Every structure is written in structure tokens, then in C-alpha cells.
Amino acid sequence: MKLTVAEEGKEYIIRDIETDDEELNSFLFSLGCYSGEPITVIKHRKGGSVVAIKDGRYNIDTQLSDAIIVD
User: Fold this and answer.
1) Which residues are within 8 A (CB) of 55 and not within 5 positions of it... i.e. 6 or more apart?
2) How far, in Å, CA of 32 to CA of 12, rounded?
């Protein structure tokens, strides 16, 4: 499932990053967002989501949320 439809407050495991944009891929990797890593949606907001990855909280837009596939 895409991160945009994930339930708030629940921890998921990132299964895949679906993008052909290398810059977007390296940006997500720099946040610690890669396959096998846990991610939690703190809050869905208009135009994006607030997520917790490792020890940080990030506000990511809808394009990034659509690229992240979780289990």
C-alpha cells in the first residue's frame, strides 16, 4: 500500500520506493527512508504527511508519499 493511505499512528515497514527520479531516491535515502526501514505516519495533512523515520520527524509532500510503498 502507498504511504498516502496508511493509517495514522501505526508503524509500517518500507517495502519499496517506486520512482525513476534519482534525485528523489537519494533525498529519501538521506532521510533514512529505504527498503526494510520502519516508518510511522504521524499525521496526514492537506498536500502531504508528517512521518517519523528513525529519530526524526519529516513533513513530506504527496509526491513523496505516493512513491513510498509500505507493508
Assistant:
1) none
2) 14
Spell 42-56 as b/e; 16+ CB within 10 A means b.
eebeeebbebebeee
Please give the C-alpha separations between residue 62 and each of 13, 50, in angstroms, as whole numbers: 18, 11
Cell numbers describing residue 11: 508503524
Delineate the domains of the chain, giving CATH numbers in brackets: 3-70 (2.30.30.90)
> pLDDT tens digits, the chain, 71 residues: what are they?
999 999 999 999 999 999 899 998 998 999 999 999 999 999 999 999 999 999 899 999 998 999 999 99
